[in-house]
Amino acid sequence: MAAxxxxxxxxxxxxxxxxxxxxxxxxADQYRACLQTCKNIIGLLQKGHRxxxxxxxxxxxxxxxxxxxxxxxxxHLVPLDSCGADTQGAIGYQIQQAMYNCMHDxxxxxxxxxxxxxxxxxxxxxxxxxxxxPIGTFLDEQTANQRxxxxxxxxxxxxxRGFRRVVASPRPMEIIELxxxxxxxxxxxxxxxxxxxxxxxxxxxxxxxxxxxAVIDKDLASSLLARRLGADLLLISTAVEKVCLNFGKPxxxxxxxxxxxxxxxxxxxxxxAPGSMLPKIEAIVEFLESGGKAALITDxxxxxxxxxxxxxxWIVAE
Length: 318
Description:
The protein is an alpha/beta fold. The chain is built from nine helices and 17 strands.
């Protein structure tokens, strides 16, 4: 299966597109990784596809929080919603520059713009009562208890490696800047939006918005954006070329094409790991159940081949 020419694609690039490993975490390292991913995106634009780019920001938010912790004796801490905004701007800048440089030899450039994006969540979402998303660095038990008492943090022990702060991961409900994204896309821009799942905001009783101490799953937010834009294809770029059953086992089976019904059955059978492939498949299920026709999972190097139908895993409505 291949996407027809000149289709609208929401492309969610994963953390491996920005931070390759622990030895390549500097800003320069991140730009080089971003540049390589953008070279692969250029091939989609050359074939006439319209692309909206979303991205993860987990490591970058962690870096900001760690810097704030180290500087706490001199400077204020950074709220989590502001961390999200900071990373959207910084990563958006890297993508914009990388895309510009990748188009250096084009006779015309496609303009690229980043929209710092707020995403509405429900203040009554049960996730706020049961925070599960680890963020920031590992802490010893004494420091963890101090932060719990002083700052009201929720703390959990993480697999014997120490204690970490955990925050809520509520479901995305509404993209506040949707119309700006739509207008830019309709006018021929490549748009970078809902970075890191978007900046989580809640609506207060007076109708005003306020930031929330939470992290929204980027794939669920990308799925919501694809649905609201009426995208033809939701394309999730991750660390593997294809989705596999029995991943990492001797009977591992790569999937070329599955239906929505098969995807839901594989979820029920426990084939996809939480925090890894599972949220990607769940995001695709939501996209297809809401009228989307097709979705695709592959790695950055195979984006163009996958859209052409020669790589990746296609998930189709029927």
